[in-house]
Write a structure and sequence with these properties.
Blueprint (H helix, E strand, L loop, with lengths): L1 E7 L6 E4 L10 H7 L2 E8 L11 H10 L2 E4 L6
Antiparallel strand pairs: 1-2, 1-3, 2-4
């Protein structure tokens, strides 16, 4: 599954994964407003074997299929 990853320039360590580069049509406008300007970080091919820095690739793929996007939040440091 192809995927484009954007970082929020407003919210530190918030990353938005979408299926198609620059196609934010499935992302709620309220979320886009909250994230502010987004910068493309990379485009990747997701698979079960693909290692991601913080997210489970299966969870990301499910979210992309069902929601149209996946939001990766910063890790919780408690």
């Amino acid at each position: 599954m192809e995927c484009s990853i954007y970082k929020s320039l407003k919210k530190t360590d918030n990353y938005l994964f979408i299926k198609d580069e620059d196609d934010f049509s499935q992302v709620p406008q309220e979320l886009l407003d909250l994230l502010g300007n987004l910068e493309l970080v990379m485009a990747i091919t997701l698979s079960q074997e693909r290692r991601l820095a913080q997210a489970d690739p299966l969870e990301v793929m499910r979210a992309l299929e069902h929601e149209g996007y996946y939001l990766q939040l910063p890790p919780k440091n408690f």
